[in-house]
Amino acid sequence: MRIPLKESDDFSNKINNICTKISEKFFTTMKPKIEMNDINVMLRDCTITRAGTFDIKNVRDFYRDFLKSLMEYGWKISDILSSNNDDLYRLYFQISKDVHKFRIYGYFGIQYHVLSYYKIDKRILEIKKEINLLEEKIIQNTNKISNVGDELIKTELENLGYKDLSVEGLLSTIFDNNEIMMKLEEKIQNLENKIPENNEFIKTKDKLISELSEMIIKLNNILPNCIDYNKLMQGEVGVICYFDIETIINKFTRQTDSYINIKGLNQDDMGEIINNFETIHKILDNYSI
What would the mean pLDDT of 41-57 be, rounded to a whole number? Predict the structure, then answer.
């Protein structure tokens, strides 16, 4: 059952209240870790601009320290996890704790964009000019091969007695006759071998592209927003923290049921569940001292 709980009883109100405080405290604790700083970068057209980024190491360092504190209070923790879909990234961790016949789950993380720029280097402009020049030469040679090849195919087919066939007929003849196709392919290959510089151009271009890729820098981009699960799924960026409480069906298989009978909770269950949430808030509170 996702918190906030929909019931309006005293227990639900206390749980909703403490979880809201945890979310707010986690957000205020995270804000300095995701503070954006502008740096000079180069765009694809080689113009220089300013772009914001934050240091993901600060986030990871905080996560490790926070997880260590949670472990001391008996929480089971995940590794620091990351995932991405194109340029949309998540860095998060999950926690859980069994309280009698109930299990508390917690999710803490950030969602952010990772954007690519070039570092500022005049060599980038030089590489792009070299690549453009090579591409022009490759196109020129390819067109030359194509034009000569067309004439070669036409002449070869005429020599084989296919002079008066339509274009469709010629193509059908080529594809239906393996011997003719192999013979033409061999002649085209020989023609391409007469212009070997094209291969060298392509190799040089690939090396330049590889050199260019080494000059790409990745910037982490985020907004100082506190987002919920729905906004997380919709791809909004920001800081997120949410909790679930479930009923344990089988401790050995860790099977749970998302339904909780709030009215069936006894005072001990309610007190311990609330205390565990208060412990998380207390740990986070220490970071703002």
Answer: 95
Amino acid code (one letter) for 269: D
**Three-state secondary-structure class, residue 1:** coil
* Per-residue b or e along 80-96, where b marks 16 or more CB atoms closer than 10 Å to that residue's CB: eeeeeeeeebbbbbebb
Radius of gyration of the chain (CA): 32
**Could you write out the DSSP letters of every residue in 221-258?**
E--S-EE-HHHHHTT--EEEEEEEEEEEEETTTTEEES
Contact call for residues 96 and 76 (beta carbons, < 8 A): yes
Is the CB of residue 236 less than 8 Å from the CB of residue 135?
A: no
pLDDT at residue 14 is higher than 70: yes
pLDDT in tens, 100-148: 889 999 999 999 999 999 999 999 999 999 999 998 988 887 777 666 6
Structure tokens at 86: 């194109």
Which helix (H) or strand (E) segment is 174 a member of?
Answer: helix 167-176
The pairing of strands 88-99 and 102-118 is antiparallel
d(CA 236, CA 228): 9
Cβ atoms 212, 114 nearer than 8 A: no
Q: Rounded distance, CA 253 to CA 264, Å?
A: 24
In our burial notation (b when 16+ CB lie closer than 10 A, e otherwise), range 151-175 reads: ebbeeebeeeebeeeeeeebeeebe
- Separation between Cα atoms, residue 58 and residue 35, nearest integer Å: 10
d(CA 270, CA 239): 28
**In whole angstroms, what is the distance from residue 80 CA to residue 90 CA?**
10
Per-residue burial over 256-287, b = 16 or more CB atoms within 10 Å of its CB, e = otherwise: beeebebeebeeebbeebbebbebbbebbeeb
Helix axes 178-193, 122-159, angle to 10 degrees: 140
Is 90 exceeded by the pLDDT of residue 80? yes
